[in-house]
């Protein structure tokens, strides 16, 4: 009896464990399978494996499932700017306005480690699904600031076209223009200025965008921001013009990436003066801004700018933007030996200006000879002098190259 009782108790105990196993193992298996699916989905998202993503979503994984740090599938896809995956997730109901710790999907797309073309397409898609470009992260940065910091000029234009506040400032007082200046993104700066960004804003430690560029040794950007000091700002602050500009830059259905109008230094300068209509004339003659800025009235007439009003605007701007009218040879010997940083920069700018000043007369002479193809009796003399000029230019080039290497 005792043996039978022991056997009965033993069977009963084993049966109890079996029952427990039946109930516990499937739950554990489900958890393991779910974890495995989540990990597989995460890998598929970063690989851009659309068929596998669809299969996993069809198996029951939530479109808003949470990965490490609370990221959703859409956040992961946006962080690598995978347009096809982002579109798939949005079409299946993912929230384009999702944010984690105030960091949005749009911000993730603007900082993606991807080509600007892919970032642009992804950002445009998110904006079309009502992602808010003016939300800020914990540091009060907007998507526009992130795009400007990364150097994505076309994305910057797109965000402004969709209502992003161009002069918003983060917790340290940095605007999008300042972030671009800090990181040396010239193309972004040109577009922000064209769209009306205020270059006179200051950070909390009272630095302007130009000063940030100078501190970080982006001399060309420092010059550009100084160049546009007054003329552009006075026009682009007009809200009607800015609205029209943004509309003209907004992508149209079926557009190809890269169809946004590129704005160079010349266009920024001319827009600031209201002289956009002479851009074609200057482009035909391949005249760069640096050449235009050293012209006199006679030079303007020679290149076809004969309207007195246009001449007055240009000459006034050129006068305002003169770097330093002191002739290089007039610099005192002590200054030549002990130039401060600002004086040295002005010296180089003046040198460049005087070299540029010589280009227009030579171009004019070349055109003259092309139109009047005849030989002069003293042609050989001209050839010899031209050789001497070329020799002098080469010597100057050698010295400037040495100077560049030294600094």
UniProtKB/TrEMBL annotation:
Q: Which UniProt keywords apply?
A: ANK repeat, Cytoplasm, Developmental protein, Differentiation, Meiosis, Phosphoprotein, Repeat, RNA-mediated gene silencing, Spermatogenesis
> Domain of life here?
Eukaryota
Ranges of Acidic residues composition bias in the record: 1-16
Which InterPro entries would you find in this protein's record?
Answer: Ankyrin_rpt, Ankyrin_rpt-contain_sf, Asz1_SAM, SAM, SAM/pointed_sf
Which residue intervals make up region (Disordered)? Answer: 1-21
> GO BP, one example?
cell differentiation
Instruction: Show me the ANK repeat boundaries.
Output: 69-95, 139-171, 172-204
Q: Which GO terms describe its cellular component?
A: pi-body
Looking up CDD domains in the UniProt record yields: SAM_ASZ1
Pfam families associated with the record: Ank, Ank_2, SAM_2
User: Domain SAM: where?
Assistant: 261-324
List where in the cell it is found.
Cytoplasm
Under the heading SUPFAM superfamilies, the entry gives:
Ankyrin repeat, SAM/Pointed domain
Q: Provide the assembly information.
A: Interacts with DDX4, PIWIL1, RANBP9 and TDRD1.
Q: What is this protein called?
A: Ankyrin repeat, SAM and basic leucine zipper domain-containing protein 1
């Amino acid at each position: 009896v005792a043996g039978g009782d022991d056997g009965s108790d033993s069977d009963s105990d084993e049966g109890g464990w079996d029952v427990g196993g039946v109930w516990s193992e499937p739950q554990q298996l489900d958890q393991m399978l779910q974890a495995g699916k989540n990990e597989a989905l995460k890998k598929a998202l970063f690989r851009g494996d659309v068929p596998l993503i669809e299969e996993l979503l069809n198996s029951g994984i939530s479109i808003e499932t949470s990965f490490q740090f609370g990221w959703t599938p859409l956040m992961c896809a946006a962080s690598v700017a995978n347009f096809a995956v982002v579109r798939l997730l949005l079409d299946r109901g993912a929230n384009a306005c999702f944010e984690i710790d105030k960091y949005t999907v749009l911000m993730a797309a603007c900082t993606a480690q991807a080509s600007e073309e892919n970032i642009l397409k992804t950002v445009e898609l998110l904006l079309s699904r009502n992602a808010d470009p003016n939300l800020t992260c914990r540091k009060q940065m907007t998507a526009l600031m992130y795009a400007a910091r990364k150097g994505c000029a076309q994305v910057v234009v797109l965000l402004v076209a969709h209502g992003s506040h161009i002069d918003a400032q983060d917790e340290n007082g940095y605007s999008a223009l300042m972030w671009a200046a800090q990181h040396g993104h010239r193309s972004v700066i040109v577009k922000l200025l064209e769209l009306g960004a205020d270059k006179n804003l200051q950070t909390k430690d009272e630095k302007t965008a130009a000063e940030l560029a100078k501190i970080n040794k982006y001399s060309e950007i420092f010059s550009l921001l100084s160049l546009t000091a007054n003329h552009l700002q006075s026009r682009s602050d007009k809200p009607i013009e800015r609205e029209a500009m943004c509309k003209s830059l907004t992508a149209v259905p079926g557009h190809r990436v890269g169809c946004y109008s590129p704005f160079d230094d010349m266009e920024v300068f001319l827009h600031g003066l209201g002289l956009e209509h002479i851009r074609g004339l200057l482009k035909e003659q391949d005249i760069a801004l640096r050449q235009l800025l050293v012209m006199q009235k006679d030079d303007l007439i020679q290149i076809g700018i004969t309207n007195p009003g246009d001449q007055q605007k240009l000459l006034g701007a050129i006068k305002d933007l003169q770097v330093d009218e002191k002739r290089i040879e007039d610099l005192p010997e002590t200054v030549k030996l002990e130039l401060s940083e600002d004086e040295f920069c002005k010296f180089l700018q003046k040198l460049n200006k005087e070299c540029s000043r010589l280009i227009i007369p030579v171009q004019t002479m070349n055109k003259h000879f092309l139109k009047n193809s005849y030989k002069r009796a003293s042609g050989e003399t001209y050839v010899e002098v031209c050789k001497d000029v070329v020799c002098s230019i080469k010597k100057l080039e050698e010295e400037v190259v040495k100077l560049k290497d030294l600094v």
